[in-house]
Structure formats: C-alpha cells, structure tokens
C-alpha cells in the first residue's frame, strides 16, 4: 500500500464513522504514524507503508472511529503557542480560552494568580511562562486532572513557581496574608440536560465534572462569586469564561457578593470573558 492509497483508506474509514474533518485527520493520523509533517506526506505519495506502520495506523483509526478525541489519541493539545499533555480524565484545551489568558496578562503584572478548575494547567502555566513575575496556584477537584497538571508543570519546569492544590477538603477562607491578586477560571458551564446533546468526542470521553454546570449552567459561577471576595485582595480581579447562549446575561444578573463588573469581552457568539473587581 502506498501513502496515496493509505490516505484514501484512512479517509474512507473516518468518513464512515462520521468523523468531522476526516480529510484533515487522515493526514494527521498518517503523520503521527510516520513521524512527518503534511508537506512531506504530500511529496512522498508513492512511498510504501510497511506492515508495522499499517498495524499502528489501524490501531489509531479504530480509536478515532470510536470518536475518541484526536488530542487523547496523540496525548497532547496545542494552547497559546505551546503543546500541553492531555489524556483521559482532563478537559482538552479550547482555542477560545486563550482569550482568557490574553486578558489576564493585560491586567496581572506581578503577584499570585489562582486558576480555579485548572484541568491540564494550560491557563495558569501559560500565564507563568508569559510573565516571569507571576506565581500561581493550580486548583482542581479531580485527581486525574491534577496528574495531568503535574505532568505539564514538570514539562515546563515550573515547580518553583506554582502550587498544585487538590480541592478535596475545605478551602481556606483567605489565601496568604494579603489575599490573591487574581483568580482565573473556565468553570463547567454546560447545563446538565444539554450534556447528552454534545458531540460524541465530548459527551463520551471528556470528564463530566469539567462540563456539568448544574441545571442552568451557572452553578460554579455562584460558587466563585461567593468565595472570590474573601480570597482576593482589595482591587483584585476575577476573570471567568462564560459560555452558552444567554449565559452571559444570566451570569451578569447573579448576586456577585460585592464584586463589580469591570469588563466584558465577547470572544464569539457563544463565549465571553467577564472581569470582576473586588472593591
């Protein structure tokens, strides 16, 4: 089998499984097996595929046809110009969440940032890598997510600047002597009843705890609004990603326990970043 034939073979398999972007993904799977880029793949269409490569390719195809996310199959995902390790038990970084990092960097010049619901650690680690004057706390309820965050802290050599906090007991009423400079969070915001309608890659594989925002999708915003005023120093900021149609209005109309809306940035038709100030 040549690479041209292999690409056609992979494409047909993925298309039959209703995989989105099956043409692109056929190239990506072949590149993963061969350790090459797409340009090399295109230029060497007559190259023969060896038996051991075909065996590896079929194993990846089977996983993708079961709609396992490509990021889980590859064990990594891009975020903010870097590659983060991901896998079963952790939310895959989304491109729109990079705007949360952009906004946090525009406000935070130094100090301590808490990433509530850190997942893979992509947000807090991106902040620390972009700004050497920041220190961080990466907090998550999930032990599986914490393991992925640990791997990424190790990957980027940031153990001297970030604390990994497994939220399995009562959280402190106050962080440090003076409080936090900033809290960033991409909390679960999908209404419980909507999870069953998500695409299979999300519904079947990504952790429900990172998706389920309660009956109306605002459960964890309420938790953050209640606790942020006692965690933040005066003048400190809470930045949250808000997703879903109509969710921005719902979040803005909630009790913010003294937090003041400082800025709202709409990323697209369904995602916003809302900044609150602790005055």
From TrEMBL:
Q: What is this protein called?
A: peptide chain release factor N(5)-glutamine methyltransferase
Q: What is its EC number?
A: 2.1.1.297
Family annotation (SUPFAM superfamilies): S-adenosyl-L-methionine-dependent methyltransferases (SSF53335)
**Xref: PANTHER family:** HEMK METHYLTRANSFERASE, MTRF1L RELEASE FACTOR GLUTAMINE METHYLTRANSFERASE
Residue stretches making up the Methyltransferase small domain: 97-189
Q: Which reaction does it catalyse?
A: L-glutaminyl-[peptide chain release factor] + S-adenosyl-L-methionine = N(5)-methyl-L-glutaminyl-[peptide chain release factor] + S-adenosyl-L-homocysteine + H(+)
Which InterPro entries did the record assign? DNA_methylase_N6_adenine_CS, HemK-like, N5-glutamine_MTase, PrmC_N, RF_methyltr_PrmC, SAM-dependent_MTases_sf, Small_mtfrase_dom
| GO terms under biological process | methylation
